[in-house]
Structures are given as C-alpha cells and as structure tokens.
Amino acid sequence: MDRIYLIGMQFYGYHGVFPEENKLGQSFIVDLTIELDLSKAGKTDDVADTVNYGNLFSTCKTIVEGERYKLLETVAEKIAHTVLSDEPMIQACTVKVIKPNAPIPGQFHSAAVEITRKKDERK
Asked: What's the pLDDT at 54?
C-alpha cells in the first residue's frame, strides 16, 4: 500500500483532563499517514486520482480546534474516523496527536497517542 504523510501540523486546542487545559488551551501537533493506491495518480499526473492534502489538513484543524475532549485518544479517533469516512480512496490511516506541554511534573519532550485504523475495521 502506498502512503501520503502530513507531518507536524500545528493547531491550538482545548483538550485535557484538567480545567486549566480546557480554559487556557495549548498547542497540539498532528502527524497523519494515509494508505491508498497511488499507482493511477503516478501514471496520470491528475489530482483527481489522489487525495487533496489541503482537505486532510482542514479535517485535522477542524477537529483539533473544534470540540473539546479530555483525551488525546478521542482526538485521534475523531480524526481517523473522519478521514476514512470522507475520503473513499483511503484504506487506512495512522494518526499521531502530540501534546508538547502536557501537565506532567518533570522534564520530557511531549506526550503523544498514535492509532492506526483501517476502513474495513470502522465501527
């Protein structure tokens, strides 16, 4: 299966378990990998034979900057479900949601959740 990557998309959202996170918000980084057959697009050089990267970015932005969730797991699941529902060519996707400033005492780079979902496994 072929892949398209959107790496390091940055958004501002209000997700978290603590009230301060829901009130103040913070930055989130999303990496998205989609799996699909790109052989036709490679032969035709026609954008209609692939997936519009801008639409994928907009989907992630809408979800991360929209409704508030407690868990990164929920944000990732919403992105995966929407991407697989909206884009018929996509067979699977991997979504990584990174929270650089998670409220954990101590020094660390970030907290993240990564999920992989396939079109035939959706509920």
From this structure: 96
Task: Return the pLDDT at 48.
Answer: 93
CA 40 – CA 43 distance, rounded (Å): 5
Spans of the chain, pLDDT less than 70 = 121-123
| pLDDT for the residue numbered 107 | 81
Whether 40 sits among the annotated catalytic residues: the reply is no
Q: Name the catalytic one among 61, 70, 99, 119.
A: 99
Look up the pTM and report it.
0.93
Q: From 83, 72, 77, 81, select the one nearest 112 (Cα to Cα).
A: 72
What whole-number distance in Å separates Cα of residue 46 and Cα of residue 23? Answer: 44
Length of the chain: 123
Residues 6+ apart with CB under 8 A from 111: 72, 98, 99, 102, 104
Q: With CA atoms as reference, report the closest residue to 38 among 53, 48, 46, 50.
A: 50
